[in-house]
Design goal:
By secondary structure, the protein is α/β, with parallel strands linked by helices. It has one domain (1-333): Lactate dehydrogenase/glycoside hydrolase, family 4, C-terminal (L-2-Hydroxyisocaproate Dehydrogenase, Chain A, domain 2). It is built from ten helices and 13 strands. It has helices spanning 39-47, 63-71, 88-92, 116-133, 146-159, 173-187, 222-233, 235-243, 251-268, 312-337; strands at 3-9, 16-22, 28-32, 54-59, 78-83, 97-100, 138-141, 168-170, 198-200, 207-209, 273-280, 289-297, 300-304. The strands form four sheets. It has a six-stranded parallel sheet with strand order 5-4-3-6-7-8, sandwiched between helices. Strand 6, helix 4 (116-133) and strand 7 (138-141) form a beta-alpha-beta unit. Helix 4 packs parallel to helix 5 (146-159), helix 5 crosses helix 10 (312-337) and helix 6 crosses helix 9. It binds 1,4-dihydronicotinamide adenine dinucleotide. GO terms for molecular function: L-malate dehydrogenase (NAD+) activity. InterPro entries: L-lactate/malate_DH, Lactate/malate_DH_C, Lactate/malate_DH_N, Lactate_DH/Glyco_Ohase_4_C, Malate_DH_AS, Malate_DH_type1, NAD(P)-bd_dom_sf.
Length: 338
């Protein structure tokens, strides 16, 4: 990327200031699905992230308005807006990170898998465009069902001869964020210091919070473990029900997505850090994609850290998740391979 220098008009003070930035370490983020319930607040959080140099907003509708609005915020990220497939390549060109929240959300009574028919094609087409325009970019997929959309993107990248399993991520950060919120509330812990790995996938029984590994360590009764696990697995449905037809989690998802993108950028800039994400992995026999803590760095996944020692209850959760994950992953692969 080029060295950039530009003049910025500070709207509040009316003063022109010269802002010089070496963009070699300041990334371009492309947000696909930018006008949606997640896309808009996530765009806001990315626009206010000082690490982001350039933010390309893409959607099939309303992108110009969202872009005009965000561009009036006096932070460094340069916002561009792109609407419709003919402008997708421009949104993606030069991107270091592609974030995908494009697609339909759940309504009450729906599972994430019920979204497959619409969202699989959306993710396929966006991945196809990204594989051509910015094959080295990290791809963070929010669109559900994540357990299937990640394999879809991977197969598209394979077909284009540019697949790198270290660079395609299913965003499961919301499961971690929720777990940390619920646990700290229950155990009266400092939420800013509460850490828990959530492994597996991103739907129902495939969401596996490792309560035995909470930091700082906390004691849970068997009944607390069962109730908390069920609440974490169903937390998305809790929001879907409360929104009563108006969609699924958007604000907490935007927060989680922004946290994950920030971690990807830190890794890209050489600051290694650990996040859970759903990626190609061989930690569980017979399952090709699995979420565990990962070390992120300049190449994406630097190391798959695995899940450590499980309690017997957690082991049973992994066993219950395996057939569901296998089914979801196979469905995604079949969608591309036919
Ligand atoms: P939404 O319907 O509010 O927004 C979706 C946006 O995608 C709309 O602006 C729409 O115009 C756009 N879109 C549709 N087709 C497109 C295409 N081909 N190219 C670009 N943009 C396109 O939905 P919301 O609430 O933002 O949810 C988006 C997705 O995120 C859903 O699939 C939902 O299930 C998923 N989700 C994932 C979570 C996770 O933890 N990974 C949590 C919550 C939601």
């Amino acid at each position: 990327m080029a060295f950039a220098s530009k003049t910025v008009l500070n709207a509040a003070s009316g003063i022109c200031r010269l802002s010089v930035r070496n963009t070699s370490s300041a990334p371009k983020v492309a947000l696909l699905g930018a006008s949606g319930g997640i896309g808009q607040p996530l765009g806001l959080l990315l626009k206010t992230n000082p690490k982001v140099a350039s933010l390309a907003l893409y959607d099939v509708a309303n992108t110009a308005g969202v872009g005009a609005d965000l561009s009036h915020i006096d932070t460094a990220a340069q916002v561009t807006s792109h609407t419709g497939p003919e402008n997708l390549h421009a949104a993606l060109e030069g991107a270091d990170i592609v974030v995908i929240p494009a697609g339909v959300p759940r309504k009450p009574g729906m599972t994430r898998d019920d979204l497959f028919n619409v969202n699989a094609g959306i993710v396929r087409d966006l991945a196809e465009a990204a594989a051509k325009a910015c094959p080295k970019a990290f791809v963070a997929i929010i669109t559900n069902p994540v357990n299937s959309t990640v394999p879809i993107a991977a197969e598209v990248y394979k077909n284009n001869g540019v697949y790198d399993p270290k660079r395609i991520f299913g965003v499961t950060t919301l499961d971690v964020v929720r777990s940390q919120a619920f646990i700290s509330e229950l155990k009266k812990l400092d939420v800013s210091k509460t850490v828990i790995p959530v492994i597996g996938g991103h739907s129902g029984v495939t969401i596996i919070p490792l309560l035995s590994q909470v930091q700082p360590s906390a004691q849970f009764s068997d009944s607390e473990i069962e109730k908390l696990t069920a609440r974490i697995q169903d937390a998305g449905t809790e929001v879907v029900k409360a929104k009563a037809g108006a969609g699924s989690a958007t604000l907490s998802m935007a927060f989680a997505g922004a946290r994950f993108v920030d971690a990807l950028i830190s890794g890209l800039q050489g600051k290694k850090n650990v996040q859970c994400s759903f990626v190609e992995s061989d930690v569980v026999k017979g399952v090709d994609y699995f979420s565990t803590p990962l070390e992120l760095g300049p190449n994406g996944v630097e190391k798959i850290l695995g899940y450590g020692k499980l309690s017997s209850y957690e082991q049973s959760l992994v066993e219950a998740a395996v057939p569901e994950l296998q089914k979801n992953i196979a469905k995604g692969v079949k969608f591309i391979k036919g």
